[in-house]
Structures are given as C-alpha cells and as structure tokens.
Amino acid sequence: MAVEQTLSIIKPDGVEKNVIGECFRRFEKGGLKIIATKMVHLDQAKAEGFYAVHKERPFFASLVKFMTRGPVVISVLEGENAIQKNRDIMGATNPAEAAEGTIRKDFASNIEENTAHGSDGPDTAKFEIGYFFDAGEIHSR
Ligand code: ADP
Ligand code: MG
Q: Do residues 139 and 18 touch, judged by C-beta distance below 8 A?
C-alpha cells in the first residue's frame, strides 16, 4: 500500500465545539501524521472554489454559508492509505449513518454540519492540498 497525502478540514462546527485536539488525536492514533496545518477563516470565494464540484447541488449556498461562518483548521495528513484511512476516521457524510467511534458520529450535528472534511481520492487530494498550501508549508516526514 502506498504512502499518500490527503486534505483534512475541521469545519466551523468542529472548531466551535472545541474538538480540534480530539480530531488530531484520532488522526495520529489512526496512523496519520499531520504534515501541515493552519487555522483560516474562509471567505465566500475561497469556499465556493473549494466546493465548486458541488455548485449545482441544492445545498451549495447553504454549505458555503456554513463553511464561512467561523474559522476552520486545514491540515495535510500523510500515511499509508491516508485518503481512505481519514475517511474511515471521519465516518459517513450523514452522521445518522456514521459508524460508532467516528468523528462524525461523535460530534456532527447533521449532514451539513458534519465536523470534518477529507479528500475522496488521489486527484481530489492533490487539487485540495494545492488549493490551500504551498509546497514549502508541507513537511513530509
Ligand atoms: P463528503 O464530505 O463526505 O465527501 P460530499 O462530498 O457528498 O460528502 O458533500 C460535501 C459536503 O456537503 C458534506 O460534507 C456536507 O457538509 C455537505 N452536504 C452533503 N450532502 C448534503 C445534504 N444533502 N444537505 C446538506 N449538506 C450536504
Ligand atoms: Mg466529498
């Protein structure tokens, strides 16, 4: 299995619930390394660009409003099979369907305010990491 990098966002609801450290602990305990991280308050254009793939979805405007209502913590995670591993640690998009012990099961309020984002594949991960980080801000180790 290959070492991968993936983009993680602790969304505004996660920051509001003060579970940044708890999410980081789960990433590290799950075998992932945090190789870049920062707190950012996204503006509308940055959030719209990030979620451009969803721009035709009925929830797009609401999602952008949510993602810009407060700061988020954006990180690059690295490890064996990191993309799927992070998604397993997060759980299903809808917290009502998320497995026990996952971030979304434990902290998400609903399908929109679901605490965490994780890239869904290698191409998306590459785009998303480049969308937020310069190469010099990433410390692969
Ligand atoms: P995931 O984040 O699990 O990859 P998607 O890529 O399908 O899920 O959706 C992106 C984000 O849009 C979700 O994490 C969630 O915040 C929001 N979202 C998805 N589906 C809905 C929905 N039906 N209603 C409201 N918000 C949604
Ligand atoms: Mg997605």
A: no
Q: What whole-number distance in Å separates Cα of residue 2 and Cα of residue 101?
A: 25
pLDDT tens for 57-115 read 999 999 999 999 999 999 999 999 999 999 999 999 999 999 999 999 999 999 999 99
Catalytic residues: 117
Residues contacting ligand 1 via CB (< 6 Å): 54, 59, 63, 93, 111-112, 114, 117, 120
What is the residue with the minimal CA distance to atom 18 of ligand 1?
112
* Residue 84: other Cβ atoms inside 10 A: 15
Task: Pick the residue whose CA is nearest to atom 17 on ligand 1.
Answer: 112
E strands along the chain, which residues? Answer: 3-10, 33-40, 72-80, 116-118
Query: By alpha-carbon position, which residue is closest to atom 14 of ligand 1?
Result: 93
Q: Please tell me the number of the ligand nearest to residue 63's CA.
A: 1
Three-state secondary structure call for residue 12: helix
pTM of the entire predicted model: 0.98
Q: Cβ(21)–Cβ(39) under 8 Å?
A: no
Cα–Cα distance measured from residue 67 to residue 112, given in angstroms and rounded to the nearest whole number = 10
